[in-house]
Every structure is written in structure tokens, then in C-alpha cells.
Amino acid sequence: MSEVASAPEPAPSLPQIFVAFAGVSMIAFGGVLPWARRMIVEQRRWMSAEEFNEAFALCQFLPGPNIVNFSVVFGLRMGGGWGALVAVAGVLGPPLAIVMVLGALYSRFAEAEALQRVLAGLAAAAAGLIIAASAKMAEPVFRRRIGPAPFVALGVFAAVGIMRWPLWWVVLI
User: Fold this and answer.
1) Which of 57, 87, 91, 141 could disulfide-link to 75, CB 3.0 to 4.6 Å?
2) For 134, phi and psi rounded to 5 degrees?
3) SS3 32
4) Chain centre distance of CA 138
5) More confident site: 149 or 125
6) What span, in angstroms and rounded, lies between the C-alpha atoms of 12 and 46?
7) Which of 62, 33, 67, 63 lies closest to 137, judged by CA?
């Protein structure tokens, strides 16, 4: 399903940035990227699909978790240094508190068979979300058919995902 191009919304305020990233981090099990993209591009239209892809591509080459890098880039773009700080606090704060509580519970109930089944289901759902987000992000590249980008994307996928070459070799090539 392609996205309709529309005028971007005005830059969000600092509280809006915090609430948006905190909200996404609270509903995103297995990965924040699909939910962050949906919120930023499709719902609030703070960025176009191409802007999101460009910012996220940069974040993949930076050290650290992609979504934390993205929150910094997005926050800087929308609200300067304070925007970056607020976005990172939103994306990391609530999950950190939840993980601390869940870690304590897991250490107590790790051997429960029902818990093992729930975790297996969550892993499958996370894989599906990542596949769906990747497909949505690839659509503009394949739709434009400009230059070798689609072939490079397929080549990188084949090299890293299928042939299991080290990523640093693929980047050098």
C-alpha cells in the first residue's frame, strides 16, 4: 500500500516529542521501528517516507541501537539539543522501568512452561513486524526505480542475510 504524499505538519513541541516517543516505546514489542515509522510518517506526518528512510539509513551506520540513534536525529531536527534529549528520554525511560520489573519477575518464574510459550509467540510477532517495516521502507526505493539502489539493496540482503558475509566486508565493497 503506497502512502499519499501530503504536506508535512509543523514541527512538534518538546512535550509532543516526548509523548510520541514514550507512547511508541510502550506499545512496541519486538522493535520500535515499525511503530515509530507509522507514527512519524503516516499518522502525524512530521516527516515524509523519504526523509524517514534517509534519517534511518544514517542511524544504521552510527554505533548504538538504531531507534536511539533515530530519536536523537529526529529530536535534533525538530527541537535542537533539547528535542534530542526529550526524544531519547521518551524512547528509553518507560521501557527501562518496565524491563526492570519484568526482569525481577522473570528471575522468579523463568521455568514456567506457559511463560516459555508466551515468549516464543512474542518472538514470532517481532519477526513479522520487522519484515513489514522493511517492506514499507523498501517500497519508495523500488517505486522510483532511480539508479542502482534496488539492486544494491538486494545485493546487501543476499550478502549479509543469505551468504552470511560480515557486514563490515559488505560495507567496504
Assistant:
1) 87
2) -65, -40
3) coil
4) 14
5) 125
6) 8
7) 33
Please, are residues 122 and 30 in contact by the beta-carbon 8 Å criterion? yes
Cell numbers given for 44: 502525524
CB 66 within 8 A of CB 76: no
Task: Determine the residue type at 75.
Answer: G
Residues 16-58: pLDDT tens digits?
Answer: 999 999 999 888 766 788 889 999 999 999 999 999 999 998 9
List, in order, residues 6 or more apart from 26 with CB less than 8 Å away: 94, 95, 98
Residue with cell 508535512: 8
The residue among 102, 116, 108, 143 whose CA lies nearest residue 2 is: 143
- The burial class, CB within 10 Å (0-12 / 13-18 / 19+), for 123 is exposed
- How many Cβ atoms from other residues are within 10 Å of residue 156's Cβ? 15
- Cell triple for residue 98? 518496565
